[in-house]
Specification:
168 residues, 7 helices
Length: 168
């Protein structure tokens, strides 16, 4: 589907902005995840997974700086899919538990990969570095709430403008 290809291209462009302006790497990974959100809402089926994989693989191959790609591939990219699945299947407290657990595991993997594999962050480990995890959880909660509000705003205010996607 053409819309999925356009979303992949847009996601890679957004991540490349994060690679060019390194201060924006986390922000651009979060914004690029909106491409997957759109695929989850409008395209459904296998397309959200294909959009996520397409953005992740192309960004990994094309970007000179890998940090935005790692952030997207290991958390921000697949999170909209996981969020939709968890919120459909579980009650609110159970879905929050799983979402926070998934985030904490992803944060650990991101730190491990950035430090050990890509040498992107220079860290000498100290016990206080584990404060990253509760601080990250607080920021993640804000991200999740903001994502929910953006999805709600799209569904109620903007979706009607994309009716061309529903004409079969």
């Amino acid at each position: 589907m053409t819309a999925a290809a356009i979303l992949v291209a847009l996601g890679v462009v957004l991540l490349s902005l994060g690679a060019l302006i390194e201060v924006l790497d986390l922000s651009m990974a979060a914004i690029a995840s909106l491409c997957v959100v759109f695929a989850v809402i409008e395209l459904k089926g296998k397309y959200p997974y294909l959009v996520y994989l397409g953005i992740s693989l192309l960004a990994l191959l094309l970007l000179p700086v890998k940090t935005p790609c790692v952030l997207f591939a290991l958390f921000a990219g697949y999170y909209p899919i996981v969020k939709a699945l968890l919120e459909r299947r579980f009650s609110r407290p159970v879905s929050w538990f799983f979402k926070i657990l998934i985030f904490e595991v992803a944060l650990g993997l991101i730190l491990l990969i950035c430090v050990k594999l890509f040498f992107l962050i220079e860290i000498t480990w100290h016990p206080w570095y584990f404060a990253i995890f509760p601080a990250g959880a607080a920021i993640f909660l804000l991200y999740d709430v903001a994502l929910t509000r953006l999805i709600t705003a799209y569904l109620y205010r903007l979706r009607h403008r994309f009716r061309f996607l529903h004409d079969d």
